[in-house]
Specification:
Layout (H helix, E strand, L loop, with lengths): L18 H19 L6 H9 L39 H12 L8 H7 L5 E3 L15 E4 L8 E5 L10 E8 L3 E2 H19 L3 E2 L15 E5 L2 E11 L4 E10 H8 L1 H9 L9 H10 L4 H8 L7 H19 L20 H17 L5 H22 L6 H9 L22 H10 L3 H12 L14 H15 L6 H20 L18 H18 L4 H15 L15
Antiparallel strand pairs: 1-2, 2-3, 3-4, 4-9, 5-9, 6-7, 7-8, 8-9
Helix pairs in contact: 3-5, 7-19, 8-9, 8-12, 11-12, 12-14, 14-15, 16-17, 17-18, 18-19
Amino acid sequence: MPSEKSREAGFGIHAPRPFIRYLLLGLLVAGLVFALLAYGKGTFLKAGWKKVMPEQMATNSPQRAAASSAAASPAASAPVPANPAAGTAISADDQAQKIWTDFEKTSWNEALQAWSDQHQEIPCKAFRGTIWGWDADRQWSHRCAQAEQPESARWSFYVFAVKEPLIPRLEQFEENTATLPEETLIAIQNSLQTRLTTQFGPGEDRTPKPLSAQAFSWPNLHWKSGDIEIQLFASEFDPQRRQGRLRLLAQHRTLLEALKEDERLKLIGAGAPWYEAGSEIDKQLAENLRSDFPDAAVMLMKQRPDTDPEELRKAIQQFQNQIRASQSGKQTGARAMVLAVPQANWKADEFYGALLKLLTSAKTSGADRKPVLIMAADRMARRLPWVVKNDKSHEGDWNEWRKQLAKHGVIYAENAMSSVDDFGGYTGALLTRVWSEFGDTAWGERAFLVLQRQGWDTSEDCSAGSDQFRNVVQRGLEFQQTHPHSGSLPEVELTVAQAYETWWSLSQAPPGEEDSDVVPSNYQEDAETARQKAIQVYERLLQSASQSEEAAYARRVLPRLKLGVDTGQRRYYCSVSD
């Protein structure tokens, strides 16, 4: 697969996979887990846990640390500084007391200003920067924290309602411990579990079930009370050093409801990926081509052909034999067990032949059929170098194939002319042709949407420049003028709104932000105008297509835009990762 440009690409809508794909995935994951855990010497984590914790830890009844008789009573612990000096050691009881005291400062659904007035010692700030991912809990408008360290308590405020007045409200509390030894983490967890059970009743143990007797998962404890949900778990743990961090996370109803919409909005917010086999566009193409081009239809829908059932059966049998051998004691010491699932690959000559057939047929097809064939050929042309590289048996034919394809308008970049190592060598010329020659057809509009969603850059290295938002705005506005009755208008308007939002958000980026090459001073000019235009387009979506997925996305981002709080949008800013 190609390396992804560091923009929020999201996940596409895929056609249903055959059941065997799920079986393969499940078995592969199981094999990898077994490999990591191993046997014999790999049991140290479980042994270490049992040494400190009795077996009844698996139940919901809280267990206290041996040296902590006062843990159940918050009043029994002395006050702990909000931010102990670096290197200052505090007891497990005191650390648990600090986290609990911070948790009790959480007044759910309280307005930012009111909460801040009550806790003036805790500084608050509005969000600025890049949001990595589309999870609702990352989209806070303001956050209050005792300090910048990872173990500092954080109170996060959100604004999801579009109705005025727009008021950020407290929806999440989280606090991590510092990196601590396993024994200390267990003691803190016991103390907090006791307090939580006393106030909210017995929690639910949502610890993943171990795949073997030798495996162990750190307890993931969960409480639900009224409008809040609470989790107590290890946010990180190093099994070799036997140390990690414990996290207490609590969330309120409004945020919990927003989190339920995340998967749907991820698809809308980032656009379905255009390069991945089996995407929605591939499904539409395959349905059109299945009768005349059955081979191409299957290749469009699957990244790889199905694994030979007999080869899969042999792999499963071998894995089962490994398990039986380890259980019978025939294996000694640490043994890694891996399910070696055989991977099938398309035969490069067959893939190339199917592509060439599409291109040849397109030359003699009518205007109604031609754009379908060209667009399908575009999809396969992008994947061809990857297929050749995996098959290996036809790498020597690559130069000749490339020359023949060039006669049909399939162009690969210079750095891919003599090698198939660069998957991103295809220039996307066929896709551009579908839009330019058949722009008034349904397939022409589909091509436009793919190009618009990709910022009019079909490369994998941002060859069109980083500021994709400028091109997206210009072409999106032109499309609205030339296609005023298109059924794709809501989708086009969404891209225009996101482009304006990207422009404004880049102007808000913190100078020198980690993992970012954005220079905010480059985007100050007209940035406020871009914010206002983004608001206008999003509001128009709410009015013209109120029940659409695009409108649902608009409701998520509008409140922060109206408040002038950075949304972290980078949808149309292109930057290549090292």
